[in-house]
Write a structure and sequence with these properties.
The complex is a heterodimer of chains A (323) and B (100).
Chain A lengths: L11 H19 L3 E3 L2 H6 L10 E6 L4 H10 L3 E2 L4 H6 L3 E5 L6 E5 L9 H10 L2 E5 L2 E5 L2 H14 L5 H14 L5 H14 L26 H11 L4 H11 L2 H12 L3 H7 L7 H31 L5 H4 L5
Parallel strand pairs in A: 2-5
Antiparallel strand pairs in A: 1-2, 3-4, 4-5, 6-7
Helix pairs in contact in A: 6-7, 6-8, 9-10, 9-13, 10-11, 10-13
Chain B lengths: L1 E3 L3 E5 L3 E6 L10 E4 L1 H8 L6 H12 L3 H18 L2 E3 L12
Antiparallel strand pairs in B: 1-5, 2-3, 3-4
Helix pairs in contact in B: 2-3
Classes of the chains: A alpha+beta (323), B alpha+beta (100).
Chain lengths: 323, 100
């Protein structure tokens, strides 16, 4: 009757729900503040259609992020090995996995698109938190306004990667934001400004934008420039590389470029686990990746154009031709 | 009288349930999936039935020999007690299983 001998395997849907509670409880036992973001929170507020989350996303108070990873390790969740390239590009979260669970936990130290100091952002989100019962236990989640911004930023960060990001972002811009009560709308605008998301989340305000601060021009905030480059280039790896190269010395630029174009088999396998097996399948995956790289040049040019112009990418939500 | 430990997370379905022991995460790092007989017993552990009542209900529902069902229920409850998934509602401090 133990978990090893039960006949039915643990489904991803059940595992994901329980993983949210697990993280919450591990954090609580250590006195670490943790907020469930996206997933059940977005579903709870009707910001996306109900669906199975493939993972659990949790935002940790930044000062205790490493301690939280250590605490999760004690209950069997270890950092997923990633390639050097991914490690150097993905700075906002760490994915932890357990052999016994069919889902991941994404542990966030910050949420991309909130451009204010990560600690200040967390404090504000924490002050506004609400409790949601998941699997019979209370879990701290972001409130509705925070969840709207998080859902918007998540979709806008990588609009071309996943079709549902586009659909969910459209729903925010076309229905959810316009239909807010005046008080809720004013609260949302104030929160966006307070967290440094008035520009990054601007596209979700495309159909209702009264009271939103004026758009910030290019070259004022490097983090905003990076956001514009990344989001307007479709949110793929190329945009991340382009941003990283803007800050890197020439040696690191060469390394980034080399690792993006052609990595060692072991490094490649870390990012493309499905391609493991015969040499032909690995070659196919490499060719596909190269093809994506070449195609992304066009997107990158668009990203640079938007960044230089200080333009927020509203093509996704207002139907304009992005080219 | 036995009852479920309050510090569990549970995702319940029509014919199976998944339970995570939050109080013992260091030792029990993955959830338990109860289906079939274990599910039938688990659903009846609600703090209102004692062991004999659970056995009675299962005998009536499944028509199996009472002795066999009683043995299975006893074994399962002892395992649940050992795992800390249920507790003796009459004597929480007692570590020995007293199931009725």
């Amino acid at each position: 009757m133990t978990s090893d001998t039960t006949l039915k395997s643990l489904s991803q849907a059940d595992a994901s729900l329980l993983a949210h509670v697990l993280v919450s409880r591990v954090a609580e036992k250590r006195g670490i503040r943790a907020l469930t973001v996206k997933g059940p929170a977005a579903g709870h507020y009707g910001l996306r259609p109900p669906r199975v989350s493939a993972d659990a996303d949790v935002l940790i108070e930044p000062a205790r992020f490493d301690e939280m990873l250590e605490a999760l390790k004690e209950v069997g969740w270890a950092e997923r090995h990633v390639s050097r390239l991914t490690d150097s590009l993905v700075l906002h979260s760490v994915t932890v996995i357990s052999k016994q669970w069919p889902c991941d936990i994404d542990v966030h130290v910050m949420f991309p698109g909130f451009l204010k100091d990560a600690g200040e952002v967390f404090e504000e989100l924490w002050q506004r938190r609400e409790a949601l019962e998941i699997a019979g236990q209370p879990v701290e989640i972001t409130d509705r306004a925070s969840s709207i911004l998080i859902a918007g930023l998540h979709g806008l960060r990588s609009p071309s990667q996943v079709a549902r990001h586009r659909d969910e972002t459209l729903a925010l811009a076309e229905r959810i934001v316009p239909e807010l009560s005046d008080a809720d709308y004013r609260d949302l605008v104030a929160l966006a400004a307070k967290l440094g998301a008035a520009d990054t989340a601007r596209p979700i305000f495309v159909n209702r934008n009264d009271g939103l601060p004026p758009s910030t021009g290019p070259g004022v905030d490097p983090a905003l420039d990076e956001w514009r480059l990344r989001s307007a280039s479709g949110g793929g790896r190329a945009g991340q590389i382009a941003n990283a190269m803007r800050h890197a010395g020439w040696r690191d630029r060469l390394r980034l470029l080399r690792e993006y174009i052609w990595r060692s088999p072991s490094e490649f396998a870390l990012d493309e686990p499905d391609a493991q097996g015969s040499s032909s399948s690995i070659s196919r995956a490499r060719r596909a990746r190269l093809g994506r790289g070449f195609r992304s040049v066009k997107n990158l040019i668009r990203g640079y154009r938007y960044m230089k112009a200080g333009k927020d990418d509203t093509a996704l939500v207002n139907g304009e031709n992005p080219w | 009288m036995v009852r479920r430990h309050p510090d569990l997370a549970e995702v319940a379905h029509e014919d199976y349930t998944v339970v995570l022991n939050l109080a013992r995460l260091n030792e029990q790092q993955s959830p338990y999936v109860f289906e079939g007989p274990s599910f039938e017993i688990w659903t009846r552990i609600d703090g209102t039935r004692d062991e004999a009542q659970i056995v009675d209900e299962l005998v009536e529902q499944f028509g199996a020999p009472r002795e066999q069902i009683a043995t299975d229920v006893r074994a399962f409850l002892e395992e649940l007690l050992a795992l800390g998934l249920v507790e003796d509602a009459d004597n929480k401090e007692d570590t020995e299983p007293h199931l009725d």
